[in-house]
Amino acid sequence: MVVLAASVRQQLLMFRRNPEQLMALVNAPLLTLAFLAIMRHAERPDLEAYAILGPAVITVWSMALLVSGELIDGERANGTLDAMIAAPAPIGLTVLGRGATVTAVSMLSLLESVLVARVAFGVGIGVEHPLLFTATLLAMALAMAGTAVVMAAVFVLHRSARIFQNSLSYPFYLLGGAVIPPEFLPHWLQPVTKVIFLSWATDLLRDCLRPEAVENVAPRLGMVLLLGAVGFAAGILLLNSVLRRVRRTGEVSLA
């Protein structure tokens, strides 16, 4: 808990020193305007709620990519990556704490989207199952924080994380069902979405907007948490393997 609390404070301090890390929160209202304009032009009022949720999901994913990549690149650029790895505090917990902080902050994008939709288009978002909606957001945040550890483990092997950040953004927006439900994707691609926790989370969030009873709540919510836990466990194993390698070769700052 001490390590997690310290990592949370560290990330909040990083936000103050590098406010550009919050750029995704600036993009969220713009995405909301664009998506809602498309739905209005297509005369699909039934999809307007999806256009409000979409920017929030995109922001959560993009900010997690940012922190996991920039954490390693930033420490390497400052010459403190070696000290971070040598410190007694588990680096996996440090990444988890900072990732959880960024994910929590990124959730503000949902409030931004709701506000922009109300002011610009007079559109609201009715949540018919608020308890499940809140539980799904929490599960998605936990899974995203765990996934950030996997990203950090991959990024530590490369001099620049920017390539991975760019390549892991838009494909996951589609596969995760950020705006378009996975069932609208080609049939051969739909099974791939089942191994991405975002697709389970976004489906649940959409179902929470409908008055009908949500089916299979426990299994679907469990899949979000399970995939996040699997990602965290895989990230810890990979990160430990990577750290043993760079300690043995002395290539931490040159990886």
TrEMBL record:
<dbReference type="Pfam" id="PF01061">
    <property type="entry name" value="ABC2_membrane"/>
</dbReference>
<feature type="transmembrane region" description="Helical">
    <location>
        <begin position="221"/>
        <end position="239"/>
    </location>
</feature>
<feature type="transmembrane region" description="Helical">
    <location>
        <begin position="84"/>
        <end position="111"/>
    </location>
</feature>
<protein>
    <submittedName>
        <fullName>ABC-2 type transport system permease protein</fullName>
    </submittedName>
</protein>
<feature type="domain" description="ABC-2 type transporter transmembrane">
    <location>
        <begin position="6"/>
        <end position="207"/>
    </location>
</feature>
<dbReference type="InterPro" id="IPR013525">
    <property type="entry name" value="ABC2_TM"/>
</dbReference>
<dbReference type="GO" id="GO:0140359">
    <property type="term" value="F:ABC-type transporter activity"/>
</dbReference>
<feature type="transmembrane region" description="Helical">
    <location>
        <begin position="131"/>
        <end position="158"/>
    </location>
</feature>
<keyword id="KW-0812">Transmembrane</keyword>
<dbReference type="InterPro" id="IPR000412">
    <property type="entry name" value="ABC_2_transport"/>
</dbReference>
<dbReference type="InterPro" id="IPR051784">
    <property type="entry name" value="Nod_factor_ABC_transporter"/>
</dbReference>
<dbReference type="GO" id="GO:0043190">
    <property type="term" value="C:ATP-binding cassette (ABC) transporter complex"/>
</dbReference>
<keyword id="KW-0472">Membrane</keyword>
<keyword id="KW-1133">Transmembrane helix</keyword>
<keyword id="KW-0046">Antibiotic resistance</keyword>
<feature type="transmembrane region" description="Helical">
    <location>
        <begin position="50"/>
        <end position="72"/>
    </location>
</feature>
<feature type="transmembrane region" description="Helical">
    <location>
        <begin position="21"/>
        <end position="38"/>
    </location>
</feature>
<dbReference type="GO" id="GO:0046677">
    <property type="term" value="P:response to antibiotic"/>
</dbReference>
<feature type="transmembrane region" description="Helical">
    <location>
        <begin position="170"/>
        <end position="189"/>
    </location>
</feature>
